[in-house]
């Protein structure tokens, strides 16, 4: 396949530990590459892939699927517009009963999507990361992790992932100082994206909660994977930079590496 000149693009959908090796082979064979997350298992290999793609004028795209979800795209527009105000806190739950993996822990299996979304919404990388995990099925592989992210602008976030949860939960909550938003991918299309215009008012030294009904945000129903694949094809034809290009994948990978280091050392890890 790599020797066939009529094939100009490949998708690398192999186990994570094989992403670097086969992405490199494909780029050096003159192919444009769409590699599933994570881009690689360390930033050094990721940097090499980015440089190789640049040198060979090849498209390198990472499969951070939720960046292509129409509800998340709409959420990004809302955040950018300032409707929510200053983003104070973000939390994400990605929970399910399975699929259990033996070559990678839950952090590397589930969290890349959430890290990608949070970095995209805030348009910055965290200053520090701390991760805590639980090892229940295998003493060497974490089944649940809770990761805290601190950003230089004061925004904080946490990501809770588990494959030992009784039901599927995929929820991203954005807390702004004006409004709050919830992206829940397990809901119907009519309720995937909700805005909560709650108010907290200070009266006579007391914080008064003023709860208001949520507002449904209408989003175009579409298949994220189809959107992602079409974007890859469009980037090949137009030679434009993918939304989730190699550099975006590298930023996510740096947070994953810091999270793993924190998990291993049980401490706070500061990113440069």
Plain-language structure description:
This protein has two domains: 88 residues, NAD(P)-binding Rossmann-like Domain (Rossmann fold, 3-Layer(aba) Sandwich); 157 residues, Dihydrodipicolinate Reductase, domain 2. The strands form three sheets. The protein has a nine-stranded mixed β-sheet with strand order 13-10-9-8-4-7-6-5-14. It has 272 residues and is α+β, with helices and mostly antiparallel strands. The mean pLDDT is 95. α1 packs parallel to α2 and α2 runs antiparallel to α6. The chain starts with 8 loop residues before the first strand and ends with a strand. α1 links the parallel β1 and β2.
**Strand-pairing-aware structural class:** alpha+beta
Total discrete domains: 2
CATH fold-type name of the largest domain? Dihydrodipicolinate Reductase, domain 2
Largest sheet: 9 strands, mixed
Determine the N-to-C terminus distance. 40 Å
CATH class of the largest domain: Alpha Beta
Helix-residue proportion: 25-40%
Any idea what the shape is?
Answer: globular
Order of helices and strands: EHEHEHEHEEEEEEEEEHHE
- Low-confidence stretches are none
- Measured by DSSP, the beta-strand proportion falls in 25-35%
Question: Treating each run of at least 4 consecutive H or I residues as one helix, how many helices?
Answer: 6
Record the SSE blueprint.
Layout: E1 9-12, H1 19-28, E2 32-36, H2 43-55, E3 60-63, H3 70-81, E4 87-97, H4 106-122, E5 128-134, E6 144-150, E7 156-162, E8 164-176, E9 180-184, E10 193-196, E11 199-203, E12 206-210, E13 215-216, H5 224-238, H6 246-265, E14 269-270
Parallel strand pairs: 1-2, 2-3, 4-7
Antiparallel strand pairs: 4-8, 5-6, 5-14, 6-7, 8-9, 9-10, 10-13, 11-12
Helix pairs in contact: 1-2, 2-6, 4-6
């Amino acid at each position: 396949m790599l020797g066939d000149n009529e094939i100009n693009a490949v998708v690398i959908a192999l186990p994570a530990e094989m992403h670097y090796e086969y992405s490199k082979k494909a780029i050096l064979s003159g192919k444009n590459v769409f590699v599933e997350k994570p881009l690689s298992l360390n930033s050094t290999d990721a940097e090499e892939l980015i440089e190789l793609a640049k040198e060979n004028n090849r498209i390198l795209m990472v499969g951070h699927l939720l960046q292509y979800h129409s509800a998340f795209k709409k959420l990004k527009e809302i955040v950018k517009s300032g409707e929510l105000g200053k983003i104070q806190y973000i939390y994400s739950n990605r929970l399910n009963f399975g699929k259990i993996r033996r070559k990678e822990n839950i952090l590397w299996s589930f969290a890349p999507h959430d890290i990608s979304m949070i970095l995209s919404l805030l348009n910055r990388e965290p200053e520090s990361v701390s991760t805590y995990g639980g090892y229940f099925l295998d003493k060497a592989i974490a089944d649940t992790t809770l990761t805290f992210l601190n950003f230089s602008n004061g925004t904080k976030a946490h990501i809770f992932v588990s494959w030992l949860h009784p039901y599927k939960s995929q929820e991203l909550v954005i807390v702004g100082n004006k409004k709050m938003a919830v992206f829940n991918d397990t809901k119907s299309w009519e309720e995937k994206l909700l805005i909560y215009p709650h108010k907290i008012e200070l009266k006579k030294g007391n914080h008064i909660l003023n709860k208001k009904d949520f507002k449904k945000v209408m989003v175009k129903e579409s298949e994220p994977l189809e959107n992602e694949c079409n974007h890859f094809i469009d980037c090949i034809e137009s030679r434009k930079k993918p939304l989730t290009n190699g550099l975006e994948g590298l930023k996510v990978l740096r947070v994953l590496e810091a999270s793993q280091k924190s998990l291993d050392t049980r401490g706070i890890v500061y990113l440069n």
